[in-house]
Amino acid sequence: TRLMERFGDRVLHRGFAPAGRYHELLERADLVVSSARQEFFGVAVAEAMAAGAVPLVPDRLAYPELLGPDLTACLYEPGTLAERLRTMLAGAWKDYRPVAIAAGRRFGWDNVIARYDDLVDGRGGAIDVYRKTPITDPPVRRRVGKVEAAWSPDYV
């Protein structure tokens, strides 16, 4: 590939990495960059953030919600990736590292298991990772034909 031809001597790893190597690489990273066109959650970005990497991701898909309100400066608009990457590589990433770590770790098992247990046991509500407590407002229900939908009023 063109990337390997141009920067091959500086590439630490390419392709699949077993779990141990994957986590080692994450812990060495200062930045995690995505140019994804399809992303439902952003697990790799969340894992990298939890390990200490600052994200630089598109301002679309699942990323704005994944990063949260304190990392909007780490979202880029179409056509601005190269400029934003230069800024981050010049040192701006350091300002966002503590916030990125906290944002990534909020999805860690230790932080969500109690909320999942409450949902399974019927004590919860919707999970909102920006809140410390579950949403307990009764869901709004609506029947459309044979389909019944329920959602939390907080998200309407």
List the helices and strands and how they pair.
Layout: H1 2-7, H2 19-28, E1 31-33, H3 43-50, E2 54-58, H4 63-67, E3 75-76, H5 81-105, H6 109-120, E4 140-144, E5 147-151
Parallel strand pairs: 1-2, 2-3
Antiparallel strand pairs: 4-5
Helix pairs in contact: 3-5
Description:
With 156 residues, this protein is an alpha/beta fold. Strands 1-2-3 form a 3-stranded parallel beta sheet. The protein has a two-stranded antiparallel sheet with strand order 4-5. The chain contains 6 helices and 5 strands; from the N terminus they run ααβαβαβααββ. It has helices at residues 2-7, 19-28, 43-50, 63-67, 81-105, 109-120; strands at 31-33, 54-58, 75-76, 140-144, 147-151.
Q: Identify the overall geometry.
A: globular
Give a quick account of the main beta sheet: strands, pairing sense, barrel closure: 3 strands, parallel
Radius of gyration: 19 Å
* Beta content: 5-15%
**What share of residues is helical?**
40-55%
List the strand order in the largest sheet. 1-2-3
User: Number of DSSP strands?
Assistant: 5
Alpha-beta content class: alpha/beta
Count of helical regions? 6
Mean pLDDT: 82
H and E order: HHEHEHEHHEE
